[in-house]
Every structure is written in structure tokens, then in C-alpha cells.
Write a structure and sequence with these properties.
7-stranded antiparallel sheet; alpha+beta; 3-stranded antiparallel sheet; flat; Substrate Binding Domain Of Dnak, Chain:A, Domain 2; Annexin V, domain 1
Length: 795
């Protein structure tokens, strides 16, 4: 309840004023009690949150340890690792939330209680004191005798001075009351609003994080259903096997030991035997013996290195031992030593003696044929030797996206606040961000910034190349060109979120710090880019012709049973010749080309492909007007990503149309320039992959005409319409067939076949989404990615 005390009323010192003062004092006392209680509850909440975070960290560490323990199961290891990283991010979000609660509730309200309420109490003490002095002066003035003039004058003077002091104090007190009543509202609302915004940010970041994780969770959910079915089936099989084995007679199990020289693991025979030690006590120890690679070895434990008893079985002999007390003994004698062993039964002893004798005979027979080598692998153990050796070394993974991106100068800190070791990136700007700035960038919308994790997300080669071409230094030179001139302060790590958010919006949304070029500067820039494009074109023209890059083999996909995946309508036969044979067998609308391919044997591809359909020559001429769109147009052709980023910052439309040059767009000019990364940058900034020029040709048409296979793959990957026809009624496939470009023809036909298979299977699967994990789809995507990587390697 807000109580306003009138200044005029306080001078009267009426009962109404006293009642109002008393009500205010009671309300302030209650307010202080409630605020103290709220601050204590906030402290308790923060302490509990810290304890929760500590326990949660231990839980996440447990998940990581479980993932490390599951290195043999790649699905569990990778999934648990990713889940642990996501949960760790949520712990970081919780920490930020509790820090914000401490700043907004605890510190802010404590400051209000200690400062403003303390001033109120001090003013109240002075008011109470002067009120008592005024009351005493009034009583003394009333009691002064009439006949004692000096006492009357003294009482009158004291009363006058006291009243003046009272008026001054009471006015200050009323002012303090009114200020407190006004300030309490703003302080409480400011504190709670800041706390609620912290919650909003927390849940927004959590939603974004798990939205990125959702595809993996859906994929694992589908795999989990299959795992449950497989586990149930395996359980039934094991129960049946268990029941079958229980019914067997194990009394003669020692006869199961047989000699097999062609065993897959190279072990001809293995089993337990007692071995007499060569020490003075002649003790007997049970060991696991095996015959492998013309040697007799044993070991005590599975992980122990085998001990060789006989180096070469051809130099030894085996015999029964009946002159000792123990039963079922036999001896293997070599020129240097002998080894006494004991089997568990007579049948096992005979089996081991026979096995040693057979190994000796086999070793002599193999010695006579030096040209043949046994296809048996030596193992370091004698049990399940395939699993007992050292685990197979995994193929080394390439340098992670995080390491590559952070290696770019300026990328080691957040682009906007300088926070070291950033873990997020804006892929359309080409910059690295800390977790707080990444959340602010997400709130701007994807038309300003597309945020991706450097550690949680997978990175395509073309996207990684794009990040390495730009970087924080390049972008800040553009978007912060006038920052110092305008006196704007760049945020630092730990600054309040609202300050960082205001700076980022001014930087990227309002583009307040971008330096606008003059008309002359813009003209010089455009002319320079056009000349740069000519130099690139002329340098490539004078190079000797080179053979085309190796074509990635289009290996057939396989299903769970290992059979080849075939399409009933495609007629494509899988072979080692990959794309060449697919070119001959894939269906096409061009019946003449198909007939010729069927009648004549496949021709070897020439060192250089025939010239494609003629494209309009890129010629610079003086335009009617210079604009940022024209700068983007020529920068795309000149493959200059910094100049493209600068043009976009100056307000260039990414789908700008050059009406003076056949209505070409920057994306079409990027195709002319031959850079795949330039196309990727424009597509990431919302370029239309199907926008056509005056000839009705889109970027896919131009990439096909120029024979840029990697760009064709990129456009197909981004949803380019391969059925679009130009004014001559030619589709990209028609152009590729006329140019005899086998790679592009194969890719376009595969894309069309993939489309038809999708339509034939129905628009949606049971989960409501396309089955993008089918073998055909995965092979198609893999083929496209290989072509993209080849073009990236070339450039």
C-alpha cells in the first residue's frame, strides 16, 4: 500500500498527521521484515542451487566415465559423450541463472534495505527527538508565571526555536517517507524483473540446446526400438541354447578336444593341462596350453604374454610317461629341454599326444613347400584370441572443427565480448561466440545470425572452409569500423547481459558502427573487384589443361543382411566402376543417348572434358549506378568473401538482380567465379538457389554448363530444382548429357532416382518424416559430399 504524506499537513502537526506517520512507520517496519525474509530465502535457494550443480557435475562425470568404459560400443560412447556435453551446458546455464539471482535479488534488495531503510530510521529518530523537545517547550511555555517576565521571555524564545527546528526536521522526515514509498516500487520491480528475465534466458537457452539435440535423440529412439526387439530375440535364442546344452551328456566331454590345423584364429588346439615346474620342488601348476604356428605355448592369465615351451615342433618328440606317480602324464622333449604335462583323462592325453604328432608332421609338410604360407594369424593369447589381443586401432579422426576454427587469428576469443575459448559460432557471419553472446545472437533471428555449436554439432567441409575464410578479425573490421570514432564501449567478459545485448543489436541489427562508403570509394571498390575477377579468369586460361579430379566411387549401399540395395525401376547394376557404369545404366529422358550407351562399349573418359554449353562471358562495363548490391555481385565473382561480407553489411540484397546483365544474381556470379565456398556463404545468407536469369537459367544450370561438379552437389543438397528448364527448354540434365559430363549426369540422375524412390515409398514414414537414413539416401549424400570435398581440395 502506497502512503503519501502531505507537506502542508505535517506543519500543522495534527492528529491526522500523527496517525499517518504511525501507519507509515508500521508499513516500513513490515516491509523491512518481508525483504529480510526474501533475501534469506534467496540465499538458501542459491546455496541449494550450488549444491544441485555440484551433484549434477558428479552425475555428468559419471556419464563420461560410463562412456569411456563403453569404448567398444561406438553408439553408446558417442551418445553418452554428447549427452554429457549437453548436460554440462545446462549446468553452465544454471550457474549463470544463480549468479543473476544473487545480483538481482540478494545484492540489490540488501542494498535497498541497508541504505534507504537506514536513512528512514535515522530520520525517524531525529523526528521523535525533536517532537519530544517541542512538547517539553510547549509545557514549559504554558507553565511560565505571568508576573515573572524573564521566565516568560525565556519560555517563549525556547518554544520559537524548537518550533523552527521541528518544522525543518518534520519536512525532511516527510520527504524521506515519500522518497522511500516511491523508490520501494521501482527497486522491488526492477529486482524481480531482472530475475524473471534471467529465467527467460535460461529456458530459452535450454530449449535451443535440446532442439539441436532432438534429431540425435529421435535417431537413438528409433535404434532403441530395434535394439529392444533384437535383445528379446537374443534372449530367446540363448534360453533355447541353454536348454539344449543342459540336456547334453557331459560325462564324455573330454572327447570334444580336436586338432584343427585350419582354424581361423591360427590355434590348432588349446586346453588346460597341469605342467610340472623345473624348480627344485617340482610343483604342478594348471596352465592354458595351445598349439599355434608350429609352436607349443602356455599362459596363466588371459592378458599374459604366452610362454613358449617349444620354438619349433619339428625338433621335438612326444611320449607317454608311466614311471611317475601321477596319472595321464606325457612329455614333450626338445634338444634343449623337456616339459612334463598332465591331462585330466586318458582320452585327453591321447588327444594331446596325437595333436603334437600331427603338428610335427604338418610342419615338415609345409616346410617342403616354400611358396605357400599359412593363412593363420599368430595371436598373443590362447583363448578367444581374436578378442584377447590388443584392440584394433581406430582410424585417426581429423582435426576437430573447434581446433580448426580457433586457429584462425582473432577467433580465440568471442567476437563481441572477448571471452576466451569460445564454443559457439555464427555460420552466416563466420565468427566465434561465447555462450552468452550466442544466446543473444539466437534471439536476433536466423535472418541476422545462425548459431551453431563448435563441439556438439557436425560440420560439413564447405561450412568449415567458410569459417576459416572469414573470422572475428575480418568481421570486426567491417562491423566495428566506426566504434572508436563514435566512442562506443565494447563489452567485456562478465558485463551485464542487457549491456551486451544492446551492443550486439547496435552492431548487427542497426549496423551503427559500419562505415558507409562514399560514391567514389564504392566505384573504386567495384572496379577493383571486376579487375580482380579478370586476373583470375586470365590466369586460369593460360594454365595447361589438367585431367579431371578422380571420380568418387559410388559404392552400392547394403542392408542389414549385407545384400546389395537395388532399385527395381533404376536398372542400375553395382560394379567396381562406380559412376561410369551408372552413367550408362541410369534411366534418362534422352533415349538416343541411352541407346548409344547400350549399343557401344563404355568409352574411356578423355583427359579434359569437351567444352560445355557456351556461357555468357563475364564482362565489366560502366553501370548506371554503383550500389552495395553491385559490390556483392562482383565480389562473388572475384571470390572475395571479406568484400561480400562488407557489401551485406552496407545493406546489399543477397538476391540482388543486375538488370543490365541478363538479370544475373550474386549466386550465379559465384558459380562463374568457380568458388564453392562463395556459393556456400551466399546460401547461408538466404540466397535463392532457384532464382533464374533472363535466359531462364538458375545457379544449377550455370554450374552444369561450366562443369563445376562440387557446386552441382551443393545446389542439389540445398534443394535446387533440377527439372527447371531455360528458355531453350533445356534442363541441367540435358545440358550435362550434351556436354558428355559423366559425373554431373550421374549425380543428376541419382538425385532424380532418389526423388522418385521417395515418392514411391510414400511422403512420410511412420515417424512423420522422410526416411533420410535409407542406404540409397545415405549413399547419395555420401557421394555428393565427396564431390564437394574434391572441389574444396582443388581450390
Amino acid at each position: 500500500m502506497k502512503i503519501t504524506v502531505d507537506f502542508e499537513e505535517c506543519l500543522k502537526d495534527s492528529p491526522r498527521f500523527r496517525a499517518t506517520i504511525e501507519e507509515v512507520e508500521g508499513d516500513v517496519c513490515e516491509l523491512e521484515s518481508k525483504l529480510d525474509k526474501l533475501v534469506k530465502l534467496c540465499i538458501g535457494m542459491i546455496d541449494a542451487g550450488k549444491a544441485y550443480n555440484a551433484a549434477n557435475k558428479q552425475f555428468v562425470n559419471g556419464i563420461r566415465e560410463l562412456a569411456q568404459q563403453s569404448t567398444k560400443d561406438e553408439v553408446i560412447e558417442s551418445s553418452l559423450t554428447k549427452f554429457a556435453e549437453s548436460l554440462q551446458e545446462m549446468i553452465n546455464y544454471h550457474t549463470i541463472l544463480f549468479d543473476q539471482a544473487q545480483r538481482s535479488i540478494k545484492i540489490q534488495l540488501q542494498t535497498f534495505v541497508k541504505d534507504d531503510l537506514r536513512k528512514f530510521k535515522e530520520a525517524k529518530k531525529q523526528f521523535d527527538k525533536v517532537s519530544e523537545e517541542k512538547e517539553a517547550a510547549l509545557i514549559k511555555n504554558a507553565q511560565a508565571p505571568r508576573n515573572k517576565q524573564h521566565e516568560v521571555e525565556e519560555a517563549t524564545n525556547i518554544l520559537t526555536a524548537t518550533r523552527k527546528c521541528f518544522r525543518h526536521i518534520v519536512l525532511d522526515y516527510v520527504l524521506q517517507i515519500n522518497v522511500l514509498q516511491s523508490k520501494r516500487r521501482s527497486e522491488i520491480l526492477k529486482s524481480m524483473l531482472s530475475f524473471m528475465y534471467a529465467h527467460l534466458t535460461f529456458f530459452h537457452q535450454g530449449y535451443d540446446l535440446f532442439s539441436e539435440l532432438q534429431p540425435l535423440m529421435k535417431l537413438l529412439g528409433g535404434q532403441l526400438d530395434q535394439l529392444v526387439v533384437d535383445a528379446a530375440k537374443e534372449k530367446r535364442d540363448m534360453e533355447q541354447k541353454h536348454s539344449t546344452i543342459q540336456q547334453k551328456d557331459f560325462s564324455n566331454d573330454d572327447t570334444k578336444l580336436e586338432y584343427n590345423v585350419d582354424a581361423d584364429n591360427g590355434i590348432a588346439m588349446e586346453g588346460y593341462l597341469f605342467k610340472r615346474a623345473s624348480n627344485a620342488f617340482k610343483t604342478w601348476n594348471r596352465r592354458w596350453f595351445s598349439i599355434q604356428n608350429n609352436q607349443l605355448v602356455y599362459q596363466k592369465k588371459f592378458k599374459d604374454n604366452p610362454t613358449v615351451v617349444v620354438e619349433d615342433l619339428r625338433l621335438c618328440t612326444v611320449k607317454h610317461c608311466e614311471d611317475i606317480e601321477r596319472r595321464f602324464c606325457f612329455e614333450v622333449v626338445s634338444p634343449t629341454k623337456s616339459c612334463m604335462m598332465q591331462a585330466d583323462s586318458e582320452k585327453l592325453r591321447q588327444a594331446w599326444i596325437k595333436a603334437v604328432q600331427t603338428s610335427i608332421a604338418t610342419a615338415f609338410r609345409d616346410k617342403g613347400d616354400e611358396g605357400e604360407k599359412l593363412d593363420r594369424k599368430s595371436s598373443t593369447s590362447t583363448g578367444s584370441l581374436d578378442s584377447g589381443g590388443e584392440p584394433k586401432e581406430r582410424s585417426l579422426k581429423g582435426e576437430s572443427a573447434l581446433q580448426k576454427v580457433l586457429a584462425i587469428p582473432g577467433n580465440a576469443g568471442c567476437c563481441d565480448c572477448g571471452q576466451p575459448d569460445p564454443r559457439w559460432a555464427s555460420i552466416n557471419l563466420g565468427i566465434t561466440l561465447c555462450i552468452q553472446c550466442s544466446g543473444i545472437h539466437r534471439s536476433l533471428g536466423v535472418h541476422f545470425s545462425k548459431v551453431r555449436s563448435l563441439t556438439l554439432d557436425t560440420w560439413e567441409p564447405e561450412l568449415l572452409k567458410l569459417m576459416c575464410e572469414l573470422g572475428n578479425g575480418v568481421i570486426n573490421q567491417i562491423y566495428e569500423a566506426r566504434r572508436e570514432e563514435l566512442g562506443a564501449r565494447k563489452p567485456q567478459p562478465g558485463d551485464p547481459r542487457h549491456e551486451v545485448e544492446a551492443y550486439i543489436k547496435a552492431k548487427y541489427v542497426d549496423r551503427r558502427f559500419v562505415r558507409r562508403p562514399s560514391d567514389e570509394e564504392l566505384r573504386n571498390k567495384v572496379v577493383s573487384l571486376s579487375k580482380q575477377e579478370k586476373r583470375l579468369s586470365s590466369s586460369s586460361e593460360h594454365l595447361p589443361p589438367r585431367p579431371p579430379p578422380p571420380t568418387p566411387k559410388l559404392r552400392p549401399g547394403s542392408n542389414a543382411s549385407g545384400q546389395s540395395v537395388k532399385s527395381a525401376d533404376s536398372g542400375i547394376q553395382n560394379s567396381a566402376d562406380g559412376s561410369r557404369e551408372m552413367l550408362a545404366n541410369t534411366p534418362s529422358n534422352n533415349s538416343l543417348a541411352d541407346a548409344e550407351a547400350a549399343e557401344s562399349p563404355p568409352m574411356p573418359m578423355p583427359a579434359t572434358l569437351p567444352p560445355p554449353s557456351p556461357c555468357k562471358e563475364v564482362v565489366f562495363y560502366e553501370p548506371k549506378e554503383y550500389s552495395p548490391g553491385l559490390q556483392l555481385y562482383w565480389a562473388s565473382c572475384a571470390r572475395s568473401l571479406p568484400d561480400m561480407a562488407e557489401a551485406l553489411a552496407h545493406g546489399a540484397e543477397v538476391n540482388w538482380v543486375n538488370t543490365e546483365d541478363d538479370k544475373r544474381t550474386p549466386l550465379i556470379m559465384a558459380v562463374q567465379g568457380g568458388s564453392l565456398v562463395t556459393c556456400e556463404f551466399l546460401l547461408q545468407n538466404a540466397a535463392n538457389v532457384n532464382q533464374q536469369d533472363a535466359q531462364g537459367r538458375g545457379p544449377l544450370h550455370h554450374a552444369t554448363m561450366l562443369g563445376h561438379t562440387g557446386q552441382v552437389c551443393l545446389f542439389l543438397k540445398r534443394g535446387a530444382n533440377q527439372n527447371a528448364a531455360d528458355i531453350d527448354e533445356k534442363t541441367p540434365l540435358t545440358i550435362a548429357v550434351e556436354a558428355a559430363n559423366a559425373d554431373i549426369v550421374t549425380l543428376l540422375r541419382l538425385a532424380k532416382m532418389n526423388e522418385e524412390m521417395r515418392e514411391a515409398e510414400g511422403p512420410y514414414s511412420q515417424s512423420g518424416q522422410y526416411n533420410t537414413n535409407s542406404p540409397t539416401e545415405m549413399q547419395y549424400r555420401k557421394c555428393m559430399q565427396e564431390f564437394i570435398s574434391l572441389q574444396l581440395d582443388e581450390t
